[in-house]
Amino acid sequence: MPSIDSLINAFITLFVTADPVGNAPLFLGLTVGLSASVRRSIAIRGSFISFAILTLFAITGTSILDAIGITIDAFRIAGGLLLFVTAFEMIYGQRQERREETTTAASDHAANLAVFPLAIPLLAGPGTISATILLSSQLSANTTDNGWTATLALIAVIAVLMILTAGVLVAAELLDKYISNTGKLVVTRLLGVLLAALSVQYIADGVLAFAKH
Q1: What is the pTM assigned to this prediction?
Q2: What band does 108 get if pLDDT is binned at 50, 70 and 90?
Q3: Fewest CB atoms less than 10 Å from the CB: which of 51, 85, 114, 195?
Q4: 185: nearest Cα among 176, 174, 173
């Protein structure tokens, strides 16, 4: 069984890379115009999907990506490109069209948002996946018991992280009640610019990593 210190270190590492607090404003920008219940659904779904993804990599490591010939750097570049498209839509207000969607369409759209970009790549992005793989290896190496004990302990840490993340995203929705429509437009476009910068950083990191090989 891994030590308490190593588990706390694992939690802090994953918390920093997943960055639920930093992603909360982005979550508000991505879901502008949606009802409180739909936002809560997106937050919970996205956190659960992220938990499933990170658990998968905690168990398998990079074997899945290796099996289909994808490196973590290629994953980082692809995530950056997709994020840039989302940022473009936020900046030019195309996501406001959500307000006119039917209930069924909004429900479908909410499911899509929970998967992308909330779960992938904001919460369970290349950085978080890389950290999960590294922590899985470290905990297993530092455990004298069966390697599965370390893996199960890491999965428990991931579960706690994603429960906390869902809580942060749901709580962030309360702030939306105190922001005017004009304020929402300003915040959405500002966050779109920040998201675009984040996407460029993802792409740059991936390209630089490729260049070193």
Answers
A1: 0.75
A2: low
A3: 85
A4: 176
